[in-house]
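Let's practice the habit of predicting before peeking. Look at the sequence and jot down your guess about where helices and strands might fall. Then scroll down.
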Amino acid sequence: MNEGDLVLVRYTGKAEGEVFDTTEKEKAEEEGLHREDRDYRPIPVLIGEDYVIEGFEESVKDLDVGDEKEVEIPQEKAYGERDSDKVETYPEKEFEKQDVNVRRGEEIMIGNQRGKVISKGSGRVRIDFNHPLAGKDLEYWLKVEEQVTDDEEKAEYIYDYRVGHGDVDIEDGKAKFSRTHSHGDHQHQMPEELIEKVTEEIEQYTDLEVEVEE
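Done guessing? Here is the structure:
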């Protein structure tokens, strides 16, 4: 696989022998990880654009369509080492003021960071903002299911990966999408940097021109 190739990859990931994620529905059910709101299908990997962790992408680059392989990915090519500076302490009363009841073990958003409550007591709450898999070597079973070469399909996968909702319409050599999305009763504006990233990838890796509608 080369830079700019887009492939669909099936995988099962393990940390310390425990499965933490998989694209395989049966495996998810077997491991007690099955979620009704998830589509169990291969994920798109656009080589060179950091769709997945470094060690995952490097392994995929060595495979042909139809190949499968079991690989070990060291922490430095996965989610990095644990950083003690990412564990922060907050006064419990800060949460009480906002009527938020924090519990040990639960995940919580502080600003734009997601962290896990690792202790609560003596009026203090300690929150770990490290990625849950930081400091761990990972094992993956990988299978390259398909290479996407059709420009329209490629644009759709790029858009879906980066945006996750809404649609891209393709006609007359143009990929068109709206900067405004409806989500329930709310209208959301797509951030400018996201529009730029989607536009750049579609125009760089396909022959389509992007048109963003207001």
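How did you do? The radius of gyration is 20 Å.
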